[in-house]
Design brief:
This protein has 32 helices and 27 strands. By secondary structure, the protein is of the alpha/beta class. The chain is globular. It folds into 4 domains: 223 residues, Hypothetical protein af1432, CATH 1.10.3210.30; 232 residues, P-loop containing nucleotide triphosphate hydrolases (Rossmann fold); 209 residues, P-loop containing nucleotide triphosphate hydrolases (Rossmann fold); 111 residues, no CATH class. The strands form 6 sheets. An 8-stranded mixed beta sheet has the order 5-8-4-9-10-3-11-12, with helices on both faces. InterPro entries: Cas3-like_dom, Cas3_C, CRISPR-assoc_Cas3_HD, CRISPR-assoc_Cas3_HD_sf, DEAD_box_RNA_helicases, Helicase_C-like, P-loop_NTPase. This is CRISPR-associated helicase Cas3. Keywords: Antiviral defense, ATP-binding, Helicase, Hydrolase, Metal-binding, Nucleotide-binding.
Length: 947
């Protein structure tokens, strides 16, 4: 062992910004010890058993968990070793406190600027060598440690990147690096570093380091420690160890053990579990078995069959078996996430989970009234990102106060329980900053994906890549779907198995077929793959319990013009019993917002002159309302059409695709524009959804279905069946091939009815399967061209995703592979979805006296930001809740200045990116604004109207 250096020079600072300027800055060695102590506590109290095992395996320390723990602590303790460099002079105030021996090199060391993360990478080998680790295997560990150090700001660097020797200083600086490292090393018990450090494990360790650094970098905590430094470093470290549990708990990251209740009590449901749910309760535990690591489960059932509760019961079994803590429940949209968040919150409360961390994870989560906290305050977390840039570029990362820490940027997935959009998880396999932190967050939970059929080919590739990483980490996965093609589920399962270590070549020619309805569970123990399924008896029982004959009526329609086949005339004819007869509940689903608005106006004119806001029987729901209005309408619609009612006497809901997925609605009849068959089945899932339940427990208020509703009926408005083509505006939503194939399949349904669940999978495969479904005898015809265009687009999307995604877990050699694309990509620079870019549009009002207000009446002025760009959270929320997501190309070609936000918002991280539609108000009436060759206007009843 080499000679140990002397004591660390505490004039070397680690934190300065935001601290008490009357005191010396916070010493670097003490910050490093804080991070090491927190990393140890994260290992003990935050990481799941599964994560600890995976990290230990990746360090070659199987069965030596304590040794692995110390190595993780060492990585965290050395994360800022690169600050012993020219970094020390980036703050004039802090630099004044440097000892004379170190300050003398100032002019030479600041000639060039480098990031302290890269500087730390450059000196990692030197530091370990000073500690006596110089063998070949030690060098391999040093290289991986260097990558982890370089990645603690969220982006991994190439080992080949270097810094100018002058930036690192002379022998005095090298001596201090050794002294700092030796102090950390000694207080950690002189851990023996391993010779192995596999990349997937290193990614998790990097996530731990980032999290530990953030937790101990909160300004309030640092100011408190700054004012009372312990004389001895050993005492300081002991204090840091004692403080770690409190910091973790205040951040909302402490683990809570649920008191698991029986099925009925846990979910607040009447009646016992259905056969599918009972199968999971009784049969899954035996299928999981012993001695295996991770597994993937696919649950298939018709809409309304209780797949969500089935998944949560599966999670309970899988988490117990594989040592994961909590779960992430991911869905396709913000609307479905918002609704699921409420259901999960209630389920946790019923099982003594009130103290558990539960987050809603999507970009607008903080606007949700059930999740928002009006008392949120901002405080700085001194993450030191940007310390190396010029003073004008300094930017403290702003997060919520400690007890709301999880609601800060990039943090919500770290909670024990998380509900949100799938996009937030897919960021983990895109080359964005802090993707390692997302992988850390997901690898400790059971991973649940609802509506797995709802993702396009681009997102399917990203989901498959994420499943590959989760397979490598032994994370149990549950996929839910009512209409997932077998080819897609097969690819996803194989991606997971490859991540778990199964050779790709051995998977060729093998397929994994899931029963419908039912479940399939697949795992791999390093030697063989095992499949388990729902028992035949339970599968038959589920099919019988949910058996339904769905009448499908195809109505050929003509868009535009009059006559009996005009789309409007057909809709009004079908709805006549609801609007003018006995009453009942009808759902009309349109493919575009414009169609929904026009349909709503026509039906309101025919059946009820009152608007939605006036309590009319015709309601309108789509995504182009301001956030607060949309949230209120969603509550109103789901409340009136939910299982418990109160059910209206007569109601017609006109909506778009927002009602397709995971929304608990029951209609007596569903009318839909032609859509791809899988989506038609999803829409039909809102028809007679609760009939079985009501037959046992009675309909809400004792009001049964109207006489005219003799059975569930789906009416499809098909312009192709009338000899017409696909409407132009639909081409932006659905491919012509899928629509034409669906039209042809519907026309061939025997008896005009679909047997659910028996016919579902076959119909899905007929339209969405891998086999082409057009007439090969006419290779140059329209159908062939549509199929070629569809497949070409699908292939392009898959290729794009393959290019953008990080490599598969077992293909990573250098951690920089996770950020190999050029540039410093952040989350807003890449996309988890392909399609037109979107912006958020604030619809404001210009009063006749020139004032710009948030309301038509002119009572609420647009709030102004302070000179530093800050604004009270309540004011930001008020503005953001009035925004509407729109396609960016709507504003293309228009005068950019006319849509610019107020000047005082320019530097605000949220408001600065808004576009503002300034609508003139004349004599109390809102005037449309011309944008290119169209106009835009926010209507209280219709939402944003584009003509």
């Amino acid at each position: 062992m080499a000679r140990r250096p002397g004591a660390p020079d505490e004039s070397v600072w680690g934190k300065s910004r935001g601290l008490d300027p009357a005191l010396p800055p916070y010493p670097l060695i003490r910050h490093c010890l804080d991070a090491a102590a927190m990393a140890l506590h994260l290992w003990d109290a935050y990481l799941s058993e599964n994560q600890r095992v995976r990290i230990a395996e990746g360090l070659g320390l199987v069965g030596e968990v304590e040794r692995a723990r110390s190595v993780v602590g060492l990585c965290a303790g050395l994360h800022d070793i690169g600050k012993l460099s020219g970094f020390q002079f980036c703050s004039v105030h802090a630099g004044r406190y440097l000892s004379a021996e170190l300050a003398g090199d100032r002019s030479r060391m600041i000639a060039e600027r480098f990031g302290h993360d890269v500087a730390g990478m450059a000196v990692a080998g030197e530091v370990l060598s000073a500690l006596g680790f110089a063998a070949e295997e030690d060098v391999r560990f040093a290289d991986r440690l260097a990558e982890v150090i370089a990645g603690h700001h969220g982006r991994f660097h190439r080992l080949e990147e270097s810094v100018a020797p002058a930036f690192l200083g002379g022998t005095a600086w090298a001596r201090q690096r050794g002294a700092h490292a030796a102090s950390v090393y000694g207080l950690l018990g002189a851990p023996q570093v391993p010779g192995v450090f596999e990349a997937p494990a290193a990614v998790l360790v990097a996530g731990v380091v980032i999290l530990a650094d953030w937790l101990v970098s909160q300004s309030e905590y640092l100011r408190m420690r700054q004012r009372g430094l312990e004389p001895q470093l050993a005492d300081h470290f002991e204090r840091s160890v004692k403080d770690a549990p409190r910091l973790l708990a205040e951040a909302g990251l402490a683990r809570v053990g649920l008191r698991r209740k029986g099925f009925v009590e846990a979910y607040g449901l009447q009646g016992g579990p259905n056969p599918l749910q009972r199968s999971v309760l009784e049969e899954l535990r035996g299928a999981v078995g012993e001695g295996r690591r991770g597994g993937i489960m696919l649950i298939t059932a018709a809409p309304g069959d209780g797949k969500s509760e089935t998944a949560l019961e599966a999670e309970r079994i899988l988490s117990e078996r594989f040592g994961t803590e909590g779960y992430a429940f991911l869905l396709p949209t913000m609307a479905t996430s918002d609704q699921m968040y409420g259901r999960v919150a209630q389920a946790l409360l019923r099982q003594s989970g009130e103290g558990a961390g539960l987050t809603l994870v999507h970009s607008m989560a903080w606007l949700n009234s059930a999740y928002a906290d009006e008392q949120l305050e901002a405080s700085d977390v001194l993450a030191c990102e940007g310390d190396e840039v010029r003073q004008s570029g300094l930017r403290a990362e702003v997060h919520m106060r400690p007890q709301r820490w999880l609601r800060g940027s990039k943090r919500p997935l770290l909670a024990q329980f998380a509900v949100g959009t799938i996009d937030q998880a897919l960021m983990a396999v895109l080359p964005v900053r802090h993707n390692a932190l997302r992988l850390l967050a997901l690898s400790g939970k059971t991973f649940i994906v609802d509506e797995a059929h709802a993702y396009d080919p681009y997102m399917q590739v990203l989901l498959g890549r994420l499943l590959n990483w989760l397979g490598a980490y032994g994370v149990p996965v549950v996929l839910l779907s009512a209409t997932l093609p077998a080819s897609v589920s097969d690819r996803l399962i194989k991606e997971y198995l490859q991540g778990a270590g199964h050779k790709r070549s051995l998977l060729k020619g093998r397929s994994f077929e899931a029963p419908y309805p039912g479940w399939l569970y697949v795992d791999f123990d390093g030697e063989s793959v095992r499949e388990s399924r729902i028992s035949d008896a339970r599968g038959r029982a589920q099919a019988q319990a949910r058996s339904m004959r769905l009448e499908v009526v195809v109505e050929p329609v003509v868009r535009g013009g009059g006559g009996a086949r005009a789309r409007r005339a057909v809709i009004e004819r079908v709805l006549q019993p609801v609007g003018e007869g006995e009453g009942g509940v009808a759902l009309v689903v349109c493919n575009t917002v414009g169609d929904a608005q026009d349909t709503y106006l026509a039906l309101r004119e025919r059946f009820d002159s009152r608007s939605h806001e006036e309590g009319g029987m015709v309601q309108l729901l789509h995504a182009r309302f301001p956030g607060d209005v949309r949230e209120a309408r969603m509550r109103e619609v789901t409340g009136g059409l939910g299982r418990g009612g109160p059910r209206p006497v007569r109601r017609i809901v006109v909506a778009t695709q927002v009602v397709e997925q995971s929304l608990d609605l029951d209609a007596d009849i569903v009318i839909s524009d032609l859509a791809p068959l899988s989506l038609l089945l999803q829409r039909a899932g809102r028809c007679w959804r609760h009939e079985n339940h009501w037959m046992v427990h009675g309909a809400p208020g004792g009001r049964g279905r109207p006489v005219w509703a003799g059975g569930p009926r789906l009416v499809v408005l098909d312009p192709i069946a009338c000899g017409g083509g696909v409407p132009e505006q639909w081409g932006e939503v659905y491919s012509e091939h899928l629509l034409a194939t669906t039209s042809r399949v519907l026309a061939g349904i025997e008896g005009g009815a679909i047997s659910i669940p028996d016919d579902v999978q076959g119909l899905v495969e007929a339209v969405h399967g891998d086999s082409p479904a057009y007439n090969w005898n006419d290779p140059g015809g329209r159908e062939a061209k549509a199929w070629a265009a569809h497949k070409g687009k699908e292939t392009a999307e898959r290729s794009m995703a393959q290019l953008r995604a990080i490599p598969r877990a077992r293909s990573v050699r250098a951690l920089h592979d996770l950020h190999r694309l050029p540039g410093e990509e952040d989350e807003w620079e890449v996309s988890t979805r392909l399609g037109a870019d979107s912006v958020r549009l604030l619809c404001a009002y210009v009063q006749q006296d020139g004032r710009v207000t948030l309301d038509v009446e002119g009572e609420r002025l647009l709030p102004e930001a302070g000179l530093d760009g800050t604004m009270p959270v309540s004011s930001v929320r008020e503005v953001m809740r009035r925004t509407v997501p729109v396609r960016a190309d709507w504003l293309a070609g228009a005068d950019c200045g006319s849509f610019a936000p107020p000047e005082s918002w320019a530097e605000h991280p949220l408001l600065g990116d808004l576009r503002v539609l300034r609508q003139p108000v004349l004599s109390g009436r809102v005037q449309a604004v011309k944008v290119g060759d169209r106009t835009l206007r926010l209507d209280d009843d219709l939402g944003l109207v584009r003509k």
